[in-house]
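[job 4471] stage=fold_predict status=RUNNING
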Amino acid sequence: MNDQSTPQIRMKINSHHWDIILNGSSPKTGSQILHLLPIESEVRTWGEEIYFSIPLSMPEENAKSTVTLGDVAYWPEGQCFCVFFGKTPLTTTLDEIKPASPVNVFGKVLGDLGKLKTISSGVKVLLEKI
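[job 4471] inference complete, writing structure tokens
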């Protein structure tokens, strides 16, 4: 479906942007999100995770209850796009970052994850195809 080393999605928040590559872990989820782009939403934060509503309702697809640093996922329970850049309130170690409930991991964010720590709830986010 995709060249897994080529970024497919650009996420813009404030004056920053991050590119996202699809990793094939949840191919239907990644494909559905690509078809919806562009998407504009409002960021929410939960620990060192940003998430935001997207107009997609999908069931779990190879859902995971732990993720790794930089994972990009869809949260079926909340119908949200999620980016994990550190510990969530449920996380005890960076080796096992825990989402609120299982997520469909479909990609990896490239670039400086540290900049995500400066993002506040309520700011606008834009997802677009590269």
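[job 4471] summary: Residues 29 and 76 are 10 Å apart (CA to CA).
[job 4471] exit 0
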